[in-house]
Amino acid sequence: MPQSLLSLTCPDEAATVSLGAALARALLQHSLPGALFTLRGDLGAGKTTLVRAVLRGLKVTGRIKSPSYALVEPYAIDRKSLKLKGTLQTSAYHIDLYRFSSPDEWDDAGLREILDGQSLCLVEWPEHAPALLPRADVELAFQPAAEGRTIVLQSGSALGAALLQHLASAQAGA
User: Fold this and answer.
1) Residues 163, 121: Cα–Cα separation, whole Å
2) CA-CA 20 to 30 A from 44: which of 19, 96, 147, 172?
3) For the chain, how many structural domains are there in total?
4) Whole-number average pLDDT of the chain
């Protein structure tokens, strides 16, 4: 399986938002496939900021809430279909496992069905349920840096490698 690694420095919130928008463009370039992104980092590292930027880049409107207490926040993403001459909807889920404490919560929240590979899933704090999560297409690790943060992206699938290649190409052209 192709695997790639990309390390980016985000000196401020605007750079993190820009990275999220670039990830959204990469997803759209690949027809918005079902994909699993995991985000690791300390509290306040920028994980939710990045997720919001990805969702905004995918044209999610309205309030994008942190799922810290709800565990899961669902979103509908409209996709134009020339083939069907209309609009299709794809689901995206922002999942926050920070308060996850029991495998029973996994089934109660419907995570088994949500993480079926058909939807975009952005999971914060994946280390709180390592045995239950499937392998991520892209793992993002947020690390403090002298200026802002460094975000290390690692692919875990062919799709993840393609998304990182698209992102790296866009970064090189910027």
Assistant:
1) 15
2) 172
3) 1
4) 87
In the chain the first and final C-alpha atoms are separated, in Å, by: 28
Bridge partners of residue 69, in order along the sequence: none
Angle at 37 between CA 112 and CA 102, to 5 degrees: 40
Could you tell me the residue range of the domain that residue 153 belongs to?
5-173
Tokens of 149: 């943060």
Give the span between the Cα atoms of 45 and 151, in whole angstroms.
10
Measured CA to CA in angstroms, residue 106 lies from 62, 66, 110, 126, 130 at distances of 27, 18, 6, 12, 12
Q: Are 148 and 122 in contact (CB under 8 A)?
A: no
pLDDT single digits (tens) 3-60: 599 999 999 999 999 999 999 999 998 887 789 999 999 988 999 999 999 999 999 9
Task: List, in sequence order, the alpha helices (H) in the chain.
Answer: 13-29, 47-57, 103-108, 111-114, 158-173
Which pLDDT tens digit goes with each residue over 57-77? 999 988 888 777 678 899 988
CATH number at residue 142: 3.40.50.300
Is the whole model's pTM more than 0.90, yes or no?
no
